[in-house]
Amino acid sequence: MQQPDPAALSLEDKASLLAGGDFWSTRPLDEAGVPAVVLTDGPHGIRRQRADADHLGFHASEPATCFPPAVAVGSSWDSELAAKVGELVGREARALGVGVVLGPGVNIKRSPLCGRNFEYYSEDPLLSGVLGAAFVRALQSQGVGATVKHFAANNQETGRMRVSSDVDERTLREIYLPAFERIVTEARPAAVMAAYNRVNGVPASENHWLLTEVLREEWGFEGVVVSDWGAVGDRVAALAAGLDLQMPGPDAANDAAIVRAVREGVLDEAVVDASARRVLGLTGLVGNSAETAVPAEHHALARELAADCVVLLKNDNAALPLAEHSRVAVIGEFATVPAFQGDGSSRINATRVDTPLEALRELGGTVTYAAGFASDGTLDPEESREEAVRVAREADTAVVFVGLRGETEGTDREHLELPAEQRELVRAVATVAPRTVVVLTTGGVVSLEEWHDDADAIVAGWLLGQAGGGALADVLSGAVNPSGHLAESVPLRLEDTPSYLTFPGEAGHVRYGEGVMVGYRHYESVGRAVRYPFGHGLSYTTFRTDNLSVDVTGDDSATVRVTVTNTGDRAGKHVVQVYVATTAGPVRRPARELRAFTKVALRPGESRTVELPLERRAFSYYDIEQGRWTVASGAYTVQVGENASRVVAEQSVTLAGDADGTVLSLDSSLGEWLAHPVAGPLLQQALDAGATEEQRQQSEANSGLIHMVASIPARQFLHFPGMSLSIDDLARILETTTR
Ligand code: BGC
To answer: What distance in Å separates the CA atoms of residue 733 and residue 315, rounded to the nearest whole number?
Structure first.
């Protein structure tokens, strides 16, 4: 479709394009031939509302496939899987007349308590960014736009529309922005959604630094910046900061404010034109498709995808997979009333829902059932526990389905515990059952402490989407070999989590005091034990890692090669996790950081050598003084980890790194001046020339004491008694360094 030229539109029409035409669409301009484009949640399915609209998932939407939410996809560590979800959601978007999907959400899981963690991939920016980019590319290959959200530092629900996330720049650059950066630069999403919260005091939707300097000028983003629903406060300030489209709409008062600001000379009309042009750019995404229904086969695909997201946390005495023809007692309400997605704007009206109990029965074997508890309190806890114990006693294996209900956008969790009656149920069952398997249904991590040692096996089943019941049955029975790994550390105690003392903040501010030490970066740096580390995940087969080689490919990059072998008797998928550890450079680095990964499918006995590039960024830190990514010269250890805390192979390399780009100024310290290759000798000469013989002898005798004065800013050193240098002398020497 020919895109209309904003220059041909009146100022009023252009301004009106910059807010929605209704709750879910951009504004059509019939006379100018501008159609409306539908934007809709997601992102693990399509929430297409045709009648009553809302952004919290209250009103009905059309049936669509509920694929595994991001918490599950994150645990797959599989970019092909993330891409498949993107492709299928894209197909359904077109079938449902949707042009732009409001996802993926790539915020970092700063605290396990964040109520929306089920919508986010990981505590690690690389994992989040790689999966998000794969999702976006595949979604957009279907002719549908993606919206990366929530930009930025939206890591909690408490006070989400007003709270200021106070984050230092290095932490923003290294932890909270890289997933957005990767997706924007590699996958070119149609839109980026500005978050509700403030970033360092400035609302994200009015944040010029974030929306224009970083997003557009540094990363080259050319798409539309859309507000989160209802996030815009000062419309003119938001527009000037770089926010193109206010949602929802319409908003006649704000349209008028834009027109007025231009007429009064407060806002350059060119800003309106640029935003209007970008919004008009979305018209190429008007959802239309030959398909008008959600394909039925998507349910079976959702089952396959979900199974590869399941994480086997513990499997003592090979309790899993369930032995063929064994007697299985299925216990727990989550086996019949599964939780498979969170609540809020991402809630999908699923086309159908599998339950684990039915799916296990379909796979054969003797399966008995007891509810064990009722989340709504309709069963007597004592009686239902007794019944569960009776059923468990007669089985070879008891599989207990426990979890959380009511995980939702809008509120954070207050603790990490499962409900008390579920914890007690697990312990009671484990006392009598020959083997006890616990299956967790949660949108985030929960404490396993009270009952961990009682269970023989523990399966993290997250929220797996509408086919999760079948997927869990596939993993429990061994039809699918589990291959998920934790995308978030499982702590021993909430008090151990790095954001514990500052989450969710106070007096309107949340201070990201742990800096870059988020998740495993913290636990590994301070040597704090966790129940299960980031990257952990077991399999029904075993893998071996050999022949690690790391070749330096320049001053600041390397290539890693490693051979992995399936040493067991079942086909399985292995995740190669490459971390980099260093103390090079002047900033404190986390003990190790994930810098590359890939998932490899291997038949029994099969070996494969994988090659992974470690580009410049894998070795960099963000230097706030120079305002750029820097590779310090020094030693770097490349580690292959079974997870973030267990290294199975490592090799050290030395990198030349970047030339020291420190720029000397009058405020640089004496030490920095003297160390400078050009200014240092000149300053030394000048100091010597101005000194008396006695002073010279004294200074030679005291040369070891230079470190005592090394930190004094050069400018101030001049004022000490006996100094004959002037500020002009210093300035002249400084000039020689810039020639
Ligand atoms: C959420 C967004 C969502 C929007 C529209 C907001 O409440 O934060 O993620 O896309 O509503 O439903």
So the answer is: 68
pLDDT tens across 63-96, in order?
A: 999 999 999 999 999 999 999 999 999 999 999 9
CA angle 644, 650, 652 (to 5 degrees): 120
Pocket of ligand 1 (CB under 6 A): 41, 55, 102, 149, 228-229, 345
Look at ligand 1, atom 12, and give the residue with the nearest C-alpha.
55
Bridge partners of 330, per DSSP, are 369, 399
Q: First vs last Cα of the chain: how many Å apart?
A: 55
188: left (phi over 0), alpha (psi -120 to 50) or beta: left
C-alpha angle with apex 48: 44 to 50, nearest 5 degrees? Answer: 170
Tens-digit pLDDT profile for residues 25-53: 999 999 999 999 999 998 999 999 987 87
pLDDT confidence band for 705 (50 / 70 / 90): low
* Range of lowest pLDDT (82-86, 538-542, 729-733): 729-733
Instruction: Please give the structure tokens belonging to residue 151.
Output: 């930009």
Domain with CATH 3.20.20.300 in the chain: 9-54+66-284
Is position 376 annotated as part of the catalytic site? no
For residue 107, the model assigns a pLDDT of 98
DSSP one-letter code for 69:
P
Reply yes or no: is the peptide bond before residue 321 cis, omega within 30 of 0: yes
Residue 707's pLDDT band (boundaries 50, 70, 90)?
confident
Residue of 13, 78, 124, 228 marked catalytic: 228
Domain(s) of CATH 2.60.40.10: residues in the chain:
541-655
- The pLDDT tens digits for 457-487 are 999 999 999 999 999 999 999 999 999 999 9
At 29, list the tokens.
């301009």
Beta carbons within 8 Å of 449's beta carbon, 6+ residues apart: 492, 493, 531
| Triad 521, 526, 532: Cα angle to 5° | 60
Interval between CA 228 and ligand 1 midpoint (Å):
6
Tokens 């616990």: give the residue.
Answer: 438
pLDDT at 659 over 90: no
pLDDT of residue 687: 86
* Closest by CA position to 385, among listed 373, 396, 398: 373
Phi (first) and psi of residue 206, to 5 degrees = -125, 20
| Contact of 379 with 107, CB cutoff 8 Å | no
- Give one word for 641, left, alpha or beta, with left for phi > 0 and alpha for psi -120 to 50: beta
Question: pLDDT of 145-178, one tens digit each?
Answer: 999 999 999 999 999 999 999 999 999 999 999 9
pLDDT of residue 287: 60
Residue with tokens 């999760």: 468
Radius of gyration in angstroms for the set of CA atoms belonging to the chain, rounded to a whole number: 29
| Mean local confidence (pLDDT), 492-510 | 98
pLDDT > 90? residue 292: no
The arrangement of secondary structure in 9-54+66-284, i.e. its CATH architecture, is Alpha-Beta Barrel (3.20)
* pLDDT(326) > 60: yes
Q: Where in the chain is the domain with CATH 3.40.50.1700?
A: 302-488
**CA 344–ligand 1 middle distance (angstroms):** 8
Distance CA 712, CA 670 (A): 6
Query: Ligand 1 centroid vs 58 CA: distance in angstroms?
Result: 12
541-655 homologous superfamily: Immunoglobulins (2.60.40.10)
Q: How far is the CA of 549 from the centre of ligand 1 (A)?
A: 46
The CATH number for 302-488, chosen from 2.40.50.140, 3.40.910.10, 3.40.50.1700, 2.40.30.10, is 3.40.50.1700
Q: Best substitution site from 102, 157, 163, 205 to test ligand 1's pocket, by max atoms within 8 Å of Cβ? A: 102
